[in-house]
Amino acid sequence: MSEASDNRAADETRGSMRDEIKKVAARMLTLRGYRGVSYGEIAGELEITTTNIHYHFGPKARLVAAVLADYIEQVGSRFRWIWTAPGTSLAQKVEASVAFNRDAYTLLNPLGNEGNSWSLITRLSAEGEALDDVMLERIVAFRRDIQASATIGVEASVRNGELHAETPCKEVGRLLASCFLYAVHISRDSGGFYGLSQHYATQLDLIQRSWGVAGMAAREVGIRLIDK
C-alpha cells in the first residue's frame, strides 16, 4: 500500500471516530445536558480512552460546540425544507413538522412515556450559563432561522390563496415556529407526544378559522395529526 493510501485510510479512520464521538455525545448531551456529560462516560460507551477524545476535540466545550453546530445544520435544514418546499399546503407543512418532531421524540423515548429530553437546543438552553458566547449566539440564530422559515411558509399560503392577504405572516410564522421550538416543553406539560400533536392541530385550526380562505376543514386536519 502506498503512503498516500495509508494517509487516506488514516484520515477516514479519524473521521469515523470523530463522527462516533459526536454521535454519542449528542445523545448524552440531549438527555443529560452540558454538566451531566463527561469525557469518561463518552469514552466508556465507545470503549476508547478520554485521551482519544481530547485528541480529536480538545476541551469539552469544543466538542459541545461541534455537536451543536451539526445539530443546528441538520435540524435547521430539515425544517427549512419542510416550510419552503413548493407545492405543499399549510396543513401538509404542519403535518411534516409533527412527523419531524415525532421522529426525534421516538428516538429518545422509544416506549413513548419516558419523559426524556429530545431536543439538544432545548436541553442546552436550560444551562445557558454553562455555554460560551458563540454557542449562545448560534442558538439565538437557530431560533431566528426557524421563525423565518415558518414565515416563508405562511407567505406562500397567502400567495396560493389558502390564507387571506391580510394575514399577519410574521406573527403567524412565529406562532407556528414556537410549536417546534418549544415542542419538548409542550409535550411534557401536556402529558406526552399526543398533547403536542393536539397543540399543533389547535394552532392550525385557529389560523385557518381566522385567516383561511378555502381547503380542508381544520377539524379534519387536526384529527389526522393526532391519530397518525
What are the main properties of this structure?
single chain; 228 residues; mainly alpha; Tetracycline Repressor, domain 2; disordered N terminus
Distance between the termini: 54 Å
**Would you list the SSEs in sequence order as H and E?**
HHHHHHHHHHH
User: What share of residues are in beta strands?
Assistant: under 5%
User: Overall mean pLDDT score?
Assistant: 89
The CATH topology, please?
Tetracycline Repressor, domain 2
- In helices, the fraction of residues equals over 70%
Number of domains: 1
Structural class by SSE content: mainly alpha
Number of DSSP helical runs: 11
Number of strands: 0
Q: What about the largest sheet? A: none
Shape: elongated
Rg from alpha-carbon coordinates: 21 Å
Low-confidence stretches: 3-12, 216-223
Q: CATH superfamily assignment?
A: Tetracycline Repressor, domain 2
CATH architecture: Orthogonal Bundle
CATH class: Mainly Alpha
